[in-house]
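Please describe what follows:
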Amino acid sequence: LRSDLMYADGQAVRPDDFRRAIERGFQIADPSGEAVGPSYFGSLLGAEACADAPVQRCDLSAGIVPDASANTVTFHLSMPDPDFLYRLALSLGYPVPPDTPANAPVDGAFPGTGPYTVSATGNNEVRLTRNPHFRSWDPNVRPDGFADEIVWRYGIEPAEGLAMVERGEADYLASIGGGSIPPESIGALRAEYTAQIHSASVSVTSVLLNTAVPPFDSLEARQAVSMAIDRARVAELYGGAFAVAVTCQVLPPAYPGYQPYCPYTTNPGPGGRWQAPDMGAAQGLVDASGTRGAVVVVGPVLDRYRELGPYLVTVLQDLGYQASLDPETDPDKIYEALNTGHIQITPITWLSDILAPSGFLSAFTCAESGGLSNYCDPALDALIAQARQLQTTDQAAAVAKWAEVDRAVVDLALWAPLYNAGTEFVSARVGNFQFHPAYFVLLDQLWVQ
């Protein structure tokens, strides 16, 4: 650790604080009643004893060894974990001081180590002010923030938030995951506020295809769906080409391993761009699959896809299926159906919490595909394992291997990717817009004039 590392309340950061923080992840339940520790730090030596988290006490002294005299923390893993450093950078790995409750959430906020500290919280607002103990040790690695204060307000309807930014009463309208800006407003915003619109995506919206049940247990049937979808028409449903970028693949453009690739289009070329649907080829794939006339139920679909659901029904009917739309609208029941793999086909949006290709592509392994595709192929698992292994020794080779995995998933048509959403709107006084592909807009790097 750096010798001058301090919390915003003036306490020095100690090596012990890192173990304390990660142990808390095994001891505190999230709103669902589960603890997040096993998902992120299950590879630590000793974590297996805390696998049934939340537990009253998780002892990770074998896996996390702090040394106060050397000012170091050593991590011991029970198995290779190529994503460990990415996970260590998440908030679950942030150090916490000794007076932090070990088995209960913090009332308010942690004292952090960055350029800002939480100075106030309310029912619909969090206020950040400068951390008086922060000193930038390298402006290229951790620059200071520009604004003296950042106020994040939530619980505001998107239309009102949009109007507040237009009037200069707010500086940024968050669109985390895509969709906060009303799609019907994007055209007018582009025309009137061109310099205030930024395109930045961290997600992929796809059509989930359940490979465990007919007709999508057939490769050709899945490929037919991806070939028949008019992605330009889908894009228009969500604000047009500027608001959402059409895609045929799972990895978003900003992620390591992304190489444009699209076999599901007319005249596929080396540029890997989608051009138009090919219904003739799609019909041929349906014939080859022998699934024409099969009964298909779309959904249930979440409210955010209410325009997309009926469109998918039309596409499937045009392909010769007996397609209908599930009328269920209860979000809890929809998520339950998704998680248990009881949906044939429905739209989903996927984000990753780490800047690693595995955050997207591990969803197709035998261990993690339940509900997402219900697909298990040892050959694909082996390919993903190769990419993960290379990630620890040869980053360039790992990136190339992840691109190969991405193409394999596209060829198998495990999902039918549609678009990458992300339109950011800032006020006229904001400059230096920067966006991180896993962590969204960098609020501290915005400047205001």
User: Anything to note?
Assistant: The mean pLDDT is 92. The longest helix spans residues 395-412. The longest strand covers residues 203-209. DSSP finds 13 helices and 18 strands in the chain.
